[in-house]
Each structure stands twice: as C-alpha cells, then as structure tokens.
Design brief:
The complex is a heterodimer of chains A (about 60) and B (about 400). Chain A has about 60 residues and is α+β, with helices and mostly antiparallel strands. Chain A has helices at about 15-20, 40-45; strands at about 1-5, 25, 30-35, 50-55. The termini of chain A are close together. The chains are: A alpha+beta (about 60), B alpha/beta (about 400). Flavin-adenine dinucleotide binds near residues 13, 33, 155 and 259 of chain B.
Chain lengths: ~60, ~400
C-alpha cells in the first residue's frame, strides 16, 4: 500500500499528475489516496521530498 | 454563491484569474473558485517572467516586482558561462516577481471587474448532462453546492483533476514531470540583475538549477529534474541541499518551495462540450524553460473570449469551443511550445561533454542576431564533431 509521510509531504501536487489511475488528490494541504491505487510507485519516485513510500502491507 | 452562472472558473492561479477578469469585462456572470484559503500561497514558482510578455496583461507595479533582470547566464557542467544580454535574449530575460502579491492582484482585478470569488472552495466533481459539462459540485467550507454554468473553465493547475474527472486523460509521463525544490535564500552574495542557469547531468539531470535574484542579497535558488532521474538520495531536494551547502554556505532559508512542472506536450484537445482547459491544466508550459505564467494568462484570456462569444450565441458545444483550441495552437505561443518541445527533446540527449563543447564555442561568439536558427548555424560551423547531433536539431527546426 501507499504510505504518506505527512510530516515530509509538502502538498505540492507533483505526484497527483503522474498517477496513471488518478488515485491521488490534494485537498488543500491534505493528500488523499483512493482505492484505485495500484501501488505502481510512480508517485513515490517523482516526489521531490521522498514523502511517499510503497510498502508490502495490505 | 449563486447556483447558476454564465461561466465557472476552477482555480485562482494566473490563468483562472485572467479568464475570470476577461469574462466579467465582457459582461458575463462569473464565479471563480479556489480551493486554497489564500490566493498565491504557498508559492510553486521561481517567479521569472519576460518583460514584454508581462506587459501584454498588466503594467508592472513595484509592489510585486522583486528584481529587474538585465542578463542571463548559462553555466555548463565544467563551469563555462555563456552570458546573454537583455538585448539578445529578449523574452528569456525579464522580471522576478512576487507571486503571492501578483496572483492576488490578478484575482482582485477579476473581482473588481465583477466576478464572484470564493476561496477555500473546491470543485469536487463535474456535473454532466448527456455528455455535456454543465457545472461542478462545489465544496465550500463544509457545505456542498451544485453550481451550473454554460461553460466551465478548468484552470486547476498541474494537478489537472477536473478535466480528468470529465474523462480527459491529463496524466503527465514520469520523465516529463519536472520535480522541483527551491529555497528563498537571504544573506547571499549575488548579482541582483542576473539570472543563472546551471546545466549538467551531475547538477540537474534533464533539467536545470536556477538562481533568480529577489532584490538585494536574496534569491530563489531552485532545481528541477526529470521524474525519471529522481531517486532515493538524489531527489530534487537532496540535489538542491548539496548545491546550496557548497555555493551559499552563509545563506539563510526563509521559504521552502516544492512543486511539479509539466514539460510534456499539450493535451490533444483542450475543449469538450461545455468545458475549456487552460494553463498548466492544459499542459501548455514551455517545455524548455518550464515557464508557464504567461501561457496560462494567454490561454485564460483567449478561452474567456471564445466562451463569451459562444455563450451569447447560445451554443457551447465542443465544436464551437474548438475555436479556442485552434487559435492558441496557431498563435506565437503555440508555435513556441511546439518548437521548444523539440529543442528540449534534443537537449536531454546531450552529454556533459557535449554541453561543455557547445558552451565553449558559444562563449566565444558574439551574435548580433540571437535567433535559434543563427545560433544553430554558428554552432555547426564551429563544431564539426557535433555536426551529427546538431543536424538532428536543425532538421527538427525546419
Ligand atoms: C518550482 C517551479 C518553478 C516555476 N518557475 C516558473 C517561472 O520562473 N516562470 C514561469 O513563468 N513559470 C514557472 N513555473 C510554472 C508556473 O508556476 C505555472 O505555469 C503557473 O502557475 C500556471 O498557472 P495556472 O493558473 O495554470 O495554475 P496555478 O498557478 O497552479 O493555479 C491553479 C490553482 O487551482 C487551484 N485548484 C486546483 N484544483 C482545484 C479544485 N478542484 N477546485 C478549486 N481550485 C483548485 C490550485 O489550488 C491553484 O491555486 C514554475 C513551476 C514550478 C513548480
């Protein structure tokens, strides 16, 4: 699953636009992940800060 | 907030603000919604804009001009600097502005022209009737409303969710998303009339690092790299930290800015029935520089003009709104986008060695006419070894 480290996230939205599923949304200063997420990790790679992480947990 | 407007604008960046102002001035009833609680903040920008381009929309005002730039320097991986004076570099040199104040000014202008404005108010879904977009579901401070409009303009920036909800694919390929980090640094020694661009696969792979002065002893120091070059320990912020530590050890960070800048090709089509897409949401950022302030204002004004015409004609189908799409593609902006996309695709294939060689020969030429064409011609003459690579570029420019 996709983990968001909220203390690192700068809510810039770079991840939102690379998500092929449209699973991410930025609600002001709050990043949300929907069930559409496929754990592809593109968002985690593009993040300028390293705030996103795909983990093995379900 | 009324439940019906002629035009609904989603997003209060420069694109949305100019669209709302233009439409209100044309006599339309307009509603602009911005999801953030404050217009212009947090900043996601290096704040550079060409002088002539800015003048097309607003007179420069000392309240939001931070620096007046006279020249730009491009610094190759080995340190060779190519200086471009204002007289040659034209629209690439300009002002560094204060987006927080600038963006507010634009929204204020829209409000003054008669547009309604709502902050901390976001569009959460389109309203669709038989395939036509007839407005949006609006969430405002805990309340949900349905707002109908003849035309909805998606000016929601890099995230570009609204068009996506309408069924348009706005995904940016990873390699074409510039992942960026920037500090507003103070207490540093800089030339406050000069912008610096550092190139190279070590400093900023497939992107660049910039120093944009903001007055005396302060500057936006930032970096953008391709998403595919962003790896653990070598993300935009890691790279910026290393540069700042070495170059400005005495600097103090007073603002921390991050963001994504899409440098892909524009959307295949920027209209649908009842919908127009402008600015970053339409992916009309200059792929070479990453600049999008002007392009968002340009597309915003054009879209509002076409919307006003279609609304008074009583028909806002995709076919009618197409005039907007066709006009911007044919415009100078559209042509520059196309050309610069090809130049960008060429540049990212250059090795550091190539860049050094090019910079060295450039540094030794004085060009009176600094057009891309003469530049390529001069470079080919001086660099037979690079001929093959430069020919690739020349053919793409023909
Ligand atoms: C690090 C960085 C440096 C840059 N440097 C420069 C530069 O030096 N010069 C330059 O010209 N350009 C630069 N750019 C690009 C420039 O910032 C953008 O092109 C410009 O802001 C685009 O304007 P816009 O109006 O299209 O979108 P934005 O300015 O992004 O505005 C979109 C607005 O829509 C709002 N929004 C989003 N979704 C919703 C919703 N559902 N409901 C309501 N509101 C919503 C957002 O909160 C935002 O305020 C840079 C970008 C980055 C990331």
């Amino acid at each position: 699953m996709l983990n968001i480290h909220r203390d690192i996230c700068g809510y810039c939205g770079a991840c939102v636009s690379v998500c092929p599923e449209g699973a991410l949304e930025l609600i002001d200063a709050y990043l949300t992940v929907s069930s559409l997420c496929m754990n592809c990790g593109l968002c985690a790679q593009v993040c300028p800060l390293g705030a996103l992480e795909v983990t093995d947990e379900e | 907030m009324k439940s019906e407007y002629d035009l609904l604008v989603i997003g209060g960046g420069p694109g949305g603000a100019i669209a709302a102002r233009t439409a209100a001035e044309a006599g339309l009833s307009v509603c602009l919604v911005e999801k953030r609680p404050a217009i212009g903040a947090p900043v996601r920008c290096a704040e550079g804009i060409g002088k002539k381009l800015l003048h097309e929309f607003i007179e420069p005002d000392e309240r939001w001009i931070a620096s007046d730039i006279r020249r730009a320097r491009i610094i190759a991986p080995d340190g060779t600097a190519v200086s471009l004076e204002e007289s040659m570099a034209g629209s690439e040199v300009g002002y560094v502005i204060e987006r927080k104040i600038f963006d507010r000014e634009l929204v204020w202008n829209a409000a003054e022209a008669g547009s309604d404005v709502f902050v901390k108010t976001r569009a959460s879904a389109p309203i669709m009737e038989g395939g036509t977009i007839t407005g949006a579901i609006i969430e405002s401070c805990g309340e949900t409303r349905r707002v109908h409009a003849d035309v909805t303009i998606a000016a929601d920036g890099v995230e570009s969710k609204f068009a996506r909800w309408c069924g348009i694919n706005t995904t940016v390929p990873l390699r074409e998303m510039m992942t960026c980090a920037q500090y507003l640094l103070t207490n540093i020694d800089i030339d406050q009339t000069c912008t610096d661009f550092y190139l190279g696969n070590y400093v900023a792979p497939e992107g660049y690092l910039w120093i944009f002065p903001k007055g005396r002893r302060s500057a936006n120091v930032g970096i953008g790299i391709s998403g595919r070059k962003s790896t653990e320990g070598n993300r935009a912020k890691d790279r910026l930290d290393r540069f700042v530590k070495e170059r400005f050890p005495e600097g103090k960070i007073i603002e921390y800015i991050i963001g994504g800048d899409p440098v892909c090709e524009p959307l295949d089509c920027t209209v649908a029935d009842g919908l127009m897409i402008i600015g970053d949401a339409a992916r009309v950022v200059d792929p070479l520089t990453g600049g999008g302030i002007y392009n968002s204002m340009f597309t915003g004004r054009l879209a509002a003009g076409v919307a006003a015409k279609c609304i008074s004609g009583g028909l806002c189908s995709r076919e009618r709104l197409m005039e907007y799409d066709e006009t911007w593609r044919r415009s100078e902006m559209g042509r520059v986008l196309e050309r610069n996309y090809r130049i960008k695709e060429f540049f990212i294939t250059l090795s550091d060695h190539h860049m050094n060689t090019l910079a060295k020969s450039l540094a030794s030429i004085t060009l009176s006419d600094f057009s891309v064409k003469t530049l390529v011609k001069e470079l080919t003459k001086r660099n037979p070894a690079l001929l093959m690579k430069l020919n690739e570029l020349k053919t793409t420019l023909n």
